[in-house]
């Protein structure tokens, strides 16, 4: 837990405090505080990533965890900077703010719930365990990667909540790139482990977006 807290604080520092040093008066603006809480929630409910784990699992993971981290950080910094310096942070477009808030926290809840269902099988890097089982209950009954969808919604929700159009576009593009790479690597590993069972699972579910993909 100590490492999770450290990573959460570092994430908040990099994405929401350092970018606002030019406008320190809005660091504790209610919008930034809400995003801080969401940011920390995402870090605290998932296993802590480590450099050792990243290196040890590079053959299966292909450093996709690093790509996800880089894209996540960028996708948070861009809307924060746009909100703080290129718009009026004290003016909020109420519809977008409300919709963004809902998407953000729905994403956080979906992400954390999906991680809880996977339990020990959820790892920051792609890992296959000796007693690995294919989880198909809960949201996994509909899509194969609901934890990634949760993170995607949370990060895009941040940009919408901050009323940042450029941030929303950047977050959608960056996170989709990251998760396309990650899902491709992960599904190759899972097909190798579960064979036809995973192929049948693929036929009746979508990868990331319900009814679409």
From TrEMBL:
It holds the Pfam family ICMT. GO terms for molecular function: protein C-terminal S-isoprenylcysteine carboxyl O-methyltransferase activity. GO terms for cellular component: membrane. The chain crosses the membrane at residues 32-51, 63-86, 92-110, 148-181. It is found in: Membrane. Keywords: Membrane, Transmembrane, Transmembrane helix. It is a multi-pass membrane protein. This is Isoprenylcysteine carboxylmethyltransferase family protein.
């Amino acid at each position: 837990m100590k490492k999770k807290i450290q990573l959460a604080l570092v994430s908040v520092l990099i994405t929401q405090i350092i970018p606002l040093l030019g406008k320190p008066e809005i660091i504790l603006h209610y919008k930034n505080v809400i995003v801080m809480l969401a940011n920390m929630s995402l870090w605290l409910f998932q296993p802590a990533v480590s450099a050792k784990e990243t290196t040890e699992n590079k053959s299966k993971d292909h450093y996709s965890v690093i790509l996800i981290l880089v894209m996540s950080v960028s996708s948070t910094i861009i809307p924060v900077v746009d909100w703080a310096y290129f718009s009026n942070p004290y003016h909020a477009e109420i519809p977008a703010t409300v919709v963004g808030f809902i998407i953000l926290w729905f994403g956080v809840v979906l992400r954390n719930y999906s991680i809880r269902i996977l339990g020990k099988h959820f790892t920051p890097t792609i890992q296959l365990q000796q007693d690995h089982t294919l989880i198909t209950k809960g949201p996994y009954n509909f899509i194969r990667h609901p934890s990634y969808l949760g993170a995607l919604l949370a990060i895009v929700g941040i940009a919408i909540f901050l009323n940042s159009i450029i941030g929303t576009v950047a977050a959608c593009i960056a996170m989709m790139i990251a998760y396309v790479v990650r899902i491709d690597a992960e599904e190759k590993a899972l097909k190798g482990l579960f064979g036809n069972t995973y192929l049948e699972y693929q036929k009746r579910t979508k990868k990331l977006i319900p009814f679409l993909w």
